[in-house]
Design the sequence.
């Protein structure tokens, strides 16, 4: 039994027939024909360099966000006397020192406005050390440790500068990434669940359920989202903890995102429920839930993934906009939006332009999701070569 | 056609009822009711309010009744043009909203016009010059428009204007004209302030429309009928505008359905950042002060505009494309 099986496996790729290169080509074609749908999608996606790069950037950012406590040298709320300090430049060579270091700050008054300025002090060389001990935190919520990726002794290291309370912008940005990135992910997951269930009910059962769901979707699509988001998040009780507010905001954002997904699911269900394999499942006695999740959803999962990827940036922007207006994430939690709130005043930004660094992260994230979604859309389209 | 419009009107009436329920929920959501908050605030300020006035106000707005009854009171007041009372401004909500309607609608209509004026030529150019330098430039700009949230764009433009051109971007008039009666100078001043908000609010919609138009037009210009027309010797320009562009315009009109809500959304937040005299900042202040009647009414009004806009787009689409009338 076993030898014959091995022979059968070898046959399509057979080495004996023709020259080695012809056999190789044949094997490649053969592989193409027997590749699964997901393998084909991966192959097409792999060729889309921009989408691949965006995917890698996003994986990196999510990894950094998860490990933000380890990467950030300071706690988000730790203040210092260096207020609105400019970013410290990493240097390799200075007089009398070679190796990674930054200059400390010296404080001077601006001769005209008498504003306190933090200037780099070239006499104060602070070597950057790796895996240093700092404040305690729980890594991934499991392990209590006080080791941080980098830090300096006898001074401060503000790679992105500090804000008006003397808090490290670098540490705050990485803490903010965690909130902003996961608002998108959790929000999309919720939209997905609501969208598939309601879109499924609407498309699979039809009738009154269909009409009711369709009207609700029409309603959601006709109310301008930002005013509705603002109104709903403004009514979150003021005494809620920042974790509860986070989940509240996520739920509000996903309440509006599910409509588009439900539409797609419904359209696909209407199309697919006439298929023979669905009738076969019904005859075999499968429950409706089983037919929906086992037979119908996998048939268009790839479209859903594209749609979900493309709806993440909208949620991230929504959260940022709400937090920017002071209606979203509340202190002590920080998100990119709450950081940008410090940049609301143009005069302040003109003096301390590094307050706009969170905007760079926001734009990179949103662009990356859009490129990724675009590449995925091309990859899952079976008619596009 | 008449039948079609009546059907659409009935459909919008259903949506309006649903929107009014949502707006009412927004009014009811904050803990406690505005009246007790108002009374507390006045008492803190040292005012003496007797029970009779409170009871009178309660009866007027039906606050002593169950929520469903309150909803019907609110709706019947709404139909009679009474939107309730704003307690942070101590004025009827209706007056506050009417004051800001001209700017809100003016900026919206202008934004939509500019969106189409920019999107249609660029979309046609991108499709007919696929993979040219211009096409790549517009695609790149499109991704920027898609990825930079409008409030951030407003912030960045304000920053650049302040830092490099010493301009105060923001507001709809220069400071010396605020509160002045309308005259020619004020009007010219307003025209100078309009382009930036209109472009910021319109940017994401414009880039979306360019992508839609480019996509549909690209599908169309490779169809056999285009080859036939070309073989007949029709001039390229006439051919393009008479056939494929006419078809590719249809999805553009039907996109008004999502363009309008997106535009009102963008307008609210850009108005807050740029301090424009639209309902956006009013909504923001209302939400911060828990001025619930004002907030709910604004959401209601904005949704109403969206619905009317969608109705107009449906009718336009039925005029442009006879197939749609027959299907209905």
Sequence:
């Amino acid at each position: 039994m076993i030898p014959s099986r091995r022979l059968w496996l070898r046959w399509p790729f057979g080495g004996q027939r023709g020259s080695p290169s012809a056999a190789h080509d044949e094997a490649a074609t053969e592989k193409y024909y027997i590749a699964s749908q997901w393998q084909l999608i991966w192959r097409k996606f792999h060729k889309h360099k921009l989408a691949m790069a965006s995917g890698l950037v996003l994986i990196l950012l999510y990894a950094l966000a998860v490990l933000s406590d380890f990467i950030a040298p300071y706690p988000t709320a730790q203040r210092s006397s260096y207020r609105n300090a400019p970013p410290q430049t990493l240097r390799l060579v200075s007089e009398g020192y070679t190796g990674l270091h930054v200059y400390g700050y010296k404080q001077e008054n601006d001769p005209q406005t008498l504003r306190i300025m933090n200037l780099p002090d070239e006499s104060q060389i602070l070597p950057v050390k790796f895996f240093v001990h700092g404040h305690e935190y729980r890594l991934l919520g499991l392990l209590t440790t006080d080791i941080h990726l980098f830090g300096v002794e006898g001074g401060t290291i503000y790679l992105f500068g500090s804000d008006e309370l003397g808090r490290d912008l670098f540490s705050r940005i990485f803490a903010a990434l965690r909130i902003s990135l996961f608002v998108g992910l959790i929000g999309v997951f919720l939209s997905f669940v609501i969208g598939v269930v309601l879109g499924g009910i609407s498309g699979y059962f039809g009738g009154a359920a269909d009409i009711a769901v369709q009207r609700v979707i029409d309603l959601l699509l006709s109310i301008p989202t930002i005013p509705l988001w603002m109104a709903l998040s403004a009514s979150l009780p003021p005494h809620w903890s920042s974790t509860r507010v986070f989940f509240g905001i996520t739920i509000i954002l996903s309440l509006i995102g599910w409509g588009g997904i439900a539409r797609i699911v419904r359209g696909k269900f209407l199309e697919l429920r006439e298929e023979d394999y669905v009738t076969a499942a019904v005859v075999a006695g499968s429950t409706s839930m089983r037919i929906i999740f086992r037979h119908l959803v996998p048939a268009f999962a790839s479209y859903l993934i594209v749609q979900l990827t493309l709806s993440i940036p909208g949620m991230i922007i929504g959260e940022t906009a709400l937090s920017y207006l002071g209606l979203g994430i509340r202190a002590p939690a920080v998100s990119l939006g709450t950081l940008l709130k410090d940049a609301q005043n143009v005069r302040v930004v003109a003096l301390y332009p590094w307050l706009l660094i969170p905007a760079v992260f926001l734009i990179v994230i949103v662009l990356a999701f859009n490129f990724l979604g675009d590449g995925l859309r091309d990859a899952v389209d079976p008619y596009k070569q | 056609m008449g039948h079609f419009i009546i059907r659409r009107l009935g459909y919008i009436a259903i949506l309006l009822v649903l929107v009014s329920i949502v707006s009412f929920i927004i009014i009811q959501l904050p803990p406690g009711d505005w009246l007790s908050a108002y009374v507390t605030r006045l008492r803190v300020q040292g005012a003496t309010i007797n029970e009779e006035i409170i009871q009178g106000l309660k009866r007027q707005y039906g606050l002593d009744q169950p929520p469903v009854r309150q909803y019907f009171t609110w709706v019947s007041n709404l139909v009679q043009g009474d939107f309730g009372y704003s307690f942070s401004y101590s004025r009827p909500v209706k007056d506050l909203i009417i004051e800001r309607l001209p700017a809100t609608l003016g900026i919206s209509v202008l934004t939509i016009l500019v969106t189409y004026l920019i999107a249609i030529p660029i979309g046609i150019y991108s499709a007919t010059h696929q993979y040219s330098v211009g096409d790549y430039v517009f695609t790149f700009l499109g991704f920027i428009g898609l990825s930079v949230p409008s409030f951030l764009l407003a912030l960045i433009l304000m920053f650049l204007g302040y830092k490099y051109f010493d301009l105060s971007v923001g507001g709809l008039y220069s400071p010396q004209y605020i509160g002045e009666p309308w005259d020619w100078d004020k009007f010219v001043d307003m025209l100078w302030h309009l382009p930036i908000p209109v472009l910021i609010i319109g940017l994401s919609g414009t880039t979306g429309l360019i992508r839609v138009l480019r996509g549909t037009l690209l599908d169309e210009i490779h169809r056999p009928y285009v080859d036939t027309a070309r073989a007949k010797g029709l001039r390229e320009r006439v051919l393009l505008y008479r056939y494929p562009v006419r078809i590719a315009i249809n999805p553009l009109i039907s996109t008004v359905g999502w363009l309008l809500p997106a535009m009102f959304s963008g307008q609210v937040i850009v108005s807050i950042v740029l301090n424009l005299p639209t309902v956006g900042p009013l909504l923001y202040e209302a939400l911060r002060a828990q001025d619930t009647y004002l907030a709910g009414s604004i959401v209601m009004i904005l949704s109403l505009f969206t619905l009317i806009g969608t109705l107009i787009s449906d009718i336009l689409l039925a005029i442009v494309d006879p197939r749609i009338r027959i299907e209905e």
Notes: The longest helix of chain A spans residues 169-205.
